[in-house]
Every structure is written in C-alpha cells, then in structure tokens.
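Friendly challenge for the regulars: who can give me the structure tokens for this chain first? No prize, just bragging rights.
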Amino acid sequence: MTSTPSSPAREFLLACELHDPRRLGTALAAGLDPVAPLEGKTPVTWLLEMYTRSDRFPMCLRMLLDRGARVGDPLVTAVLLDDAAGVRAAAVLDDGVALAQRVTLPSAFTPLEGVTPLHVAAEFGHRAAAEALLRAGAAVDAPASLDRDGLGGQTPLFHTVNAHAHRSAPVMQALLAAGADPQVRIPGLTWGRGHEWESTFFDLTPVSYAQLGLLPQMHRDAHHIDATVRALLAAGGRPAPAMPNVPNRYVSAHTGTR
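First reply, four minutes later:
Bragging rights claimed.
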C-alpha cells in the first residue's frame, strides 16, 4: 500500500512544529509561498507560535527570510535569529533606543505582549542574543506591559524559569549574573493564551512560576524545575532545604515518569 504524499502546507506545519529545516525546504521547493497567509496566519507567525524551542529555530526562520518573509524590526529579527552581531549592529544604528522598544509576538507559553527584545531572547532561549543585548545596555529587569486584566509585568527572567526542554537555563544564568532580581513579584499572567493549555496564574515570583512547571499541562521535567528553583534561591541569598522527593515518587508511580 502506498502512502499519500504530504501537501506543501502539511510539510510546512510539521516543519514548524519540529523545527525541521529539511521539511521546510521540501515545502518551499514544492511551492509553499513564504509570505502569503496560510489558514489566516503568515508562515513566520506559524513558526513563532509553535511550542518547540530549539537551536534549529533560527535556521528555519532564516530560510523564510531569505525567501522574502519579514519579521519587521531589525533588532527583533536579529534576536530571533540569535545573531549577536546583528543585535550589536541594530543597537548601534539607533543609539540603543530599540533596546527599550515594546513588541508583541505570538507565544505558546509565557506571553510576549508589550515586551522588550530581551524578553524575546529569554523566551526563545537565545543566549548569544541575550548576552549581546545586555552588553548593549538592555534593562535586565524591564517589565512587560500589563494586559486588559492588569496581568503581566513580568521581567525577562520569568521567560527562562519555566522553559520548554529547560532550553533557557543558560539565559537565566546570564540574566542573574547581570543582576536580575530573582524575587520580583508580579500580579499574574496568562500562560499559553489562546491554546488549549491556556492557564492563568496570580501573585507570581520567578520561584513560584518555576514551580508551576509541575502542572500536567506544562510537561516540564521535575529535575529541571528543582535545579531552576535552587538556582533562583541561591541568587536571592536564600537557603535551599533538602528536597529528596524529586521527582515526586507518588506522581512517578501513577504516571510512569522518572
């Protein structure tokens, strides 16, 4: 029995989901328009809003940009490409003004609504871009905008403590080394807005937000959460008590996780 060939659109969506440059190249070669909307969203938007976080994201984005797609702002584009040289060039070009600009991008997890480029680098786990932004003078504790419900205000650090596949741990360390406040408190935020895993949380600190990774909809690793919480406590000068039941034995026994 022969399988039905995938359409360019299906190949593209799989490429976005998996950050697969080979699939993306196949879709583009088969005629996928890198600019025209697909089911109401541009290809760049599809790529941005997928939940995967990996080193392959910049390569996929570059393939779209090379074929005419656009993100918009040069600095945000450089951040999404994890391009330190591009970040430096964009920051120098406008005398650093863009470092404090507010942008809104789709995000499957922590919202990117009214955030700075440093928030974007933190969300995607782009260490080279984050360090270049910090060296250029980006405010390490800049708050995001508040949404219509008065929630938000998170600093870039929040985007690193509850990250997909623990990807943003190096950026977390860079932010903490630059003086990020590990004990800042915000009124709350809505995680995964618009997706079936959407969840709203209140009265958050980086530590409490990290611990929310234990919720089933977040699919985070308990070992990673433990390491993140310990790093945040240490950065805040707080002792970390012994926590031997990680991962939780009860949960492990009932879910088959380890």
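The radius of gyration is 19 Å. Residues 19 and 206 are 28 Å apart (CA to CA). Your move, everyone else.
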